[in-house]
Design goal:
By secondary structure, this protein is mostly beta strands. The chain is built from 1 helix and 21 strands.
């Protein structure tokens, strides 16, 4: 944890919550923090530790230490706590979260990309479907879809989208008896024929669009 100055000439500066650290008007010795407040004493208060908790203990200062708008000689230091010495306000900050190791980061990403526990039953798409990129980063690319369901998105291992603003799961294509069903969890971002549609059967020359990318639907005529 750290304590931050909320006002005064040292506003924004921080110092650690450390056992034995002394708060004084002026820093005279090592292990002291200068408050630079004329109403603070030398010394004014000290950080003490009991078991795993830290406390601020007033050192019989002339003007006292304020906690919860009252003079308090002894109180716990924990994230969010505010106190006042003279005209200077302080607040205790929580420690930053520990940095993750590269192995933890990789593991988390793999979990996001992992396949579902239940096996997916693939069905043929007849006639086959072609997704033609008309604009965007992948302009000119074609995806030939012969089976489904298929999933397209920025993190998809199936149909990866390179559009920077594409959602993780952009849309899916599911074969049904009536044809190929287009589905998206983000109809406000992923449009079908410039309309906000979450689910609809795809027709020839339909256009799926999102951000700067547009994709035209074509069916195999063979």
């Amino acid at each position: 944890m750290k304590i931050v100055f909320l006002n005064g000439p040292l506003k924004g500066q921080e110092f650690p919550v450390k056992e034995g650290l002394i708060l004084s008007r002026n820093r005279e010795e090592e292990g002291e923090v200068a408050i630079e407040d004329p109403k603070a004493s030398n010394p004014h208060a000290e950080i003490v530790k009991k078991k795993t908790r830290f406390y601020l203990q007033d050192s019989n200062s002339k003007n006292g230490t304020y906690f919860n708008d009252e003079i308090n000689d002894y109180f716990i230091l924990e994230p969010g706590v505010k106190f006042q010495i003279g005209q200077t306000l302080f607040q205790v900050k929580a420690p930053p979260p520990p940095q993750k190791s590269w192995m933890e980061i990789v593991t988390e990403e793999l979990k996001k990309l992992s396949l579902k526990d239940q096996p997916i039953k693939l069905k043929p798409i007849k006639p086959a479907l072609t997704l033609q990129f008309q604009s965007g980063v992948q302009k000119g690319d074609q995806w030939h879809i012969h089976y489904g369901p298929r999933e397209a998105g920025s993190t998809s291992l199936d149909l990866p989208l390179l559009e920077p603003q594409a959602p993780d799961t952009c849309f899916s294509l599911e074969p049904t008896k009536e044809g190929v069903l287009f589905k998206t969890p983000y109809p406000e971002k992923v449009l079908l024929n410039k309309k906000h549609i979450s689910k609809k059967k795809l027709k020839e020359r339909d256009v799926i669009s999102f951000a700067n990318t547009s994709i035209e639907i074509k069916y195999d005529k063979k």
